[in-house]
Amino acid sequence: MSDNLYLAEGPHVGIRPFTPADAEEFTARAKESGALHHPWLFPPDDARAYATYASRLTEDRAKVGFLVCERMTTDGDEAGSGPIAGFININNIVGGAFRCGALGYGAFAHAAGRGLMSEGLGLVLRYAFGPLGLHRLEANIQPGNEASVALVRRAGFRLEGLSPDFLLIDGAWRDHERWAITAEMLDTP
């Protein structure tokens, strides 16, 4: 089913843009995953919030969003889009000499701990450093978010520092660790 559904694909997942048709599944998965995400993340869990969120990712040139979807084998080697496993966004994209963006991401509960987001992040990194032409990506993570730290560490990010009172999350300014990777780091074994 080589219909170019994915921007990039691996053995278990593919990455593709958000679409309006994904609203029902995305919001249902967000609701199911509330306990997993709290207190770190609050993805849209109703149709109106999803529409606003997805439109920002598709219309704002400083953002790009990817759904990480399980690849489902239908017959032989053909695979189609399966359940949405999670999402990875690149925000605050700056071009010119900087060529950098900030990552935001989340796994959905049914996919957590299965390696799907690690594979998806690898695909997003290659896409960001290839077709998007970026040189550096940053992930700002609350220090207690062990799963998120483990994800970027597995992908080869390095810890660069701590940013006190960095983001307003769940009504309070939260400290964040700053993790980063460059195109050269991804190419280095």
Helix and strand topology:
Elements: E1 8-9, E2 13-16, H1 23-32, H2 34-37, H3 47-59, E3 64-75, E4 78-94, E5 100-107, H4 116-129, E6 136-141, H5 146-155, E7 158-169, E8 172-182, H6 183-187
Parallel strand pairs: 5-6
Antiparallel strand pairs: 1-2, 2-3, 3-4, 4-5, 6-8, 7-8
Structure description:
This protein has 189 residues and is an alpha+beta fold. It has a single domain, classed as Aminopeptidase. It contains six helices and eight strands. Strands 1-2-3-4-5-6-8-7 form an eight-stranded mixed sheet, with helices on both faces. A hairpin with a 2-residue loop joins strand 7 and strand 8. Helix 4 crosses helix 5. It is globular.
Low-confidence parts: none
Tell me, rounded to a whole number, the average pLDDT.
Answer: 91
The CATH superfamily title: Gcn5-related N-acetyltransferase (GNAT)
Secondary structure tally: strands: 8
Q: Could you say what the CATH topology is called?
A: Aminopeptidase
Q: What is the straight-line distance between the termini?
A: 33 Å
Q: What is the total number of structural domains?
A: 1
| CATH architectural designation | 3-Layer(aba) Sandwich
Rg, rounded, reads 16 Å
Characteristic terms for this protein:
single chain, 189 residues, alpha+beta, Aminopeptidase, eight-stranded mixed beta sheet
